[in-house]
Write a structure and sequence with these properties.
Chain A is an all-beta fold. Chain A contains no helices and eleven strands. By secondary structure, chain B is mainly β. Chain B contains no helices and ten strands. Chain B starts with a strand and ends with a strand.
């Protein structure tokens, strides 16, 4: 059974860089797209971006170039960096796996989520 | 960017009733790239429907998805107590987008 686990600081100061890592167990990181998705307290879901195991990335333009996602296949991990954070970046951050069911798509595995608060 | 608008925002029903949730896209989308998720308090979302109408593993057949083009529907035929949750639709476009969610609450 594939499991994803987010790790990283729960508190980040304004203007600094948020850094999170997602560790994948029970399966290989190869041959899948891996996403970061966030959810501000009491609000809906926002896709941040994805990385393919080969390193190809796609980011949400709403984050205006502040985001970077990388992958380490040797460690079965992928990571998120979000720079110049403000209070608006306070959210539960999820890592997740996208699966292709034939030609259909779904995000079928999610981490439990980690709350990151931006505050001085 | 495809904007997904879900309605209603909150749906109050009783166990045993039928629930119909709507997701409308700002322009026509491929059904292959439309998914639904269920989220319960304090939990991560869970894939419920992919490809607009294919049910994910672990969900009973009282859940069904339908639709095409700009209008998609999630139907729960007879509500069970465990079905009360927030439901999101999602499109795999560029960028990926989510609807704002429909909260299904017990009446």
């Amino acid at each position: 059974q594939v499991q994803l686990q987010e790790s990283g600081p729960g508190l980040v100061k304004p203007s600094e860089t948020l850094s999170l890592t997602c560790s994948v167990s029970g399966g290989s990181i190869s041959s899948y797209f891996w996403s970061w998705i966030r959810q501000p307290p009491g609000k809906g879901l926002e896709w941040i971006g994805y990385i393919y195991y080969s390193g190809t990335t796609n980011y949400n333009p709403s984050l205006k170039g502040r985001v970077s996602i990388s992958v380490d296949t040797s460690k079965n991990q992928f990571s998120l960096k979000l720079s110049s954070v403000t209070a608006a970046d306070t959210a539960v951050y999820y890592c997740a796996r996208e699966t292709q069911f034939g030609n259909l798509l779904g995000i079928d595995y999610w981490g439990q989520g980690t709350l990151v608060t931006v505050s001085s | 960017e495809i904007v997904l608008t879900q309605s209603p925002g909150t749906l109050s029903l009783s166990p045993g009733e039928r629930a119909t949730l709507s997701c409308r896209a700002s322009q026509s989308v491929s059904s292959s790239y439309l998914a639904w998720y269920q989220q319960k308090p304090g939990q991560a979302p869970r894939l419920l429907i992919y490809g607009a109408s294919s049910r994910a593993t672990g969900f009973p057949d009282r859940f069904s998805g339908s639709g095409s083009g700009t209008d998609f529907t999630l139907t729960i035929s007879r509500l069970e107590p465990e079905d009360f949750a927030v439901y999101y639709c999602q499109h795999f476009g560029s960028p990926y987008t989510f609807g704002q969610g429909t909260k299904l609450e017990i009446k």
